[in-house]
Amino acid sequence: MLTNVLWVIGAYLYGSVPVVYLIGRLRGVDLSHEEDMHISLWREVGRLEGFVGITWDVVKGGIAVLVVDRGLHLDQWVVAGVGVAVILGELWPVFLRFRGEKSNTTGLGTDAALVWQAIPFLLGPIIAGALIRTAPRMLRRGQSLDERMKLGGPPSLSLPLGMFFGFGLFPVGCWAMGASWERTAAGVALFALIVAKRVTFGLREEMAKEGLRPGMVVNRVLFDRSHI
């Protein structure tokens, strides 16, 4: 029992390792106060570093889940607990004074490793959200390759909305695919944590400047920003 608990605690510490931040520091850039460290790493440091950072955050949750699941064959609650703990580490990392990322990328890999059969429920809305706004912006004619890869332009509303529905539908997919209740509960917990981070990220500072405006919380939940 104690060993299993230690695996969950270790997963939180593992998720707290700020690889994206460390890559930036190695290149002389402090990303700790950026709203999105992935995009800032891509733009301010370089596309290669940005690609490495994003790829790592996608796969790191999946690695942790697969180690305790397929590698060590631990109990279902341990597998689910490790998945949730990695996300907690990404969202509120002890090594960055609990100021972390919003965990969309890590959530993708973690959910996929928890119940791979439910991946269509997860990715369907996310891909649709990307195709509505992000992909057309990148494929617009008259741009150089460098301009296409800058990830510039107005922030997308459809992609964060697709993320919301993707992570929200994932537990439904777990249930439909006959996954264990522990894994389904982990999917619910991941969705709740990601939404909680959307609502609370920078909220105190924003309220100090503007107060709590109508629709602010709803916009944060659905579109990952206060104003649309």
What does this structure look like?
- The structure is a single chain.
- With 228 residues, this protein is an all-alpha fold.
- It has one domain (2-223).
- It has helices at residues 2-16, 19-26, 37-45, 47-71, 76-91, 104-114, 119-138, 145-148, 158-176, 181-200, 203-210, 216-223.
Entry summary:
This protein has 228 residues and is mostly helical. The protein is built from twelve helices and no strands.
Class derived from helix and strand content: mainly alpha
Number of domains: 1
The number of distinct helices, counting runs of at least 4 residues, comes to 12
β content, as a range? under 5%
Order of helices and strands: HHHHHHHHHHHH
List keywords for this structure.
single chain, mainly alpha, 0% strand, 228 residues, 12 helices
What's the structural blueprint in terms of helices and strands?
Layout: H1 2-16, H2 19-26, H3 37-45, H4 47-71, H5 76-91, H6 104-114, H7 119-138, H8 145-148, H9 158-176, H10 181-200, H11 203-210, H12 216-223
